[in-house]
Amino acid sequence: MRKSKALVMLSGGLDSATCLYWAKSKYSDVSAITFNCYDRIRKEKEAAVQIAETAGITNFLQIDIPFIKEWSDYKNSDRLKTDSRRSSYIPSRNLIFYSIAAHYAEFLSIKWIIGGHNFHDGSFFKDATANYIRKMNSLFRQGCSFSDHDPCMIVVPLSKMDRKSIINLAVRLKVPIELTWSCHAKGLTHCGVCYSCIERLDAFKSLGIKDPAFIGRS
């Protein structure tokens, strides 16, 4: 049945890995999709592959889009110093990524596209807000016409959850947290100082839990 099929946007990070395991608990047929942008962090790409394999995902779509670049790939400006999140900003990121996912979902007869946006994402990345997602779903209703007037839809199960709540959910779902990659540096281990690492470490610390991905980090 089409409505039992889901396609998870899998970046290799904690949020998307949690969404993958959430989807496995909700749907009988789960696929995953990841996007290889320009100069994508190798450890992030490896994490996505390892997580998909560990979860038993047999249909894992790896889409090469080398022409899509982050802000830091285009510009090296003082604006990065005012907000380090800008370095990973991609103009129209979610419009691009979800549109590609919808393209595959329609051909694969998949109803649900699962995104890993959390409660905090929309404060900076405006294309991760609930209103933006609603608008994309509206566009899918108009632009995906080969599904008997029942187009694919984006579902964001973490949208009302903060980082601590997501970690607790990941633990309950037995997500292989040690495989996830959140760092924006290009080293062999999490740097511990970029904004993503700091947010992650603070959340684990506040829960009194050691982050498995940081164990053994030099």
Rg of Cα set: 17 Å
The CATH architecture category equals: 3-Layer(aba) Sandwich
Proportion of beta-strand residues = 5-15%
Please trace the helix and strand order, writing H or E for each element: EHEHEHHHEHEHH
Within CATH, the superfamily carries the name HUPs
Task: Describe this protein's structure.
- It is a single chain.
- By secondary structure, the protein is an alpha/beta fold.
- It has one domain (2-182): Rossmann fold (3-Layer(aba) Sandwich).
- Helices cover 39% and strands 12% of the residues.
- It is built from eight helices and five strands; from the N terminus they run E-H-E-H-E-H-H-H-E-H-E-H-H.
- Strands 3-2-1-4-5 form a five-stranded parallel β-sheet, with helices on both faces.
- Strand 2 (29-37), helix 2 (42-54) and strand 3 form a beta-alpha-beta unit.
- The mean pLDDT is 89.
Furnish the topology, listing elements before pairings.
Blueprint: E1 5-9, H1 14-26, E2 29-37, H2 42-54, E3 60-65, H3 71-74, H4 79-82, H5 93-107, E4 112-114, H6 130-143, E5 153-155, H7 163-172, H8 195-207
Parallel strand pairs: 1-2, 1-4, 2-3, 4-5
Helix pairs in contact: 1-7
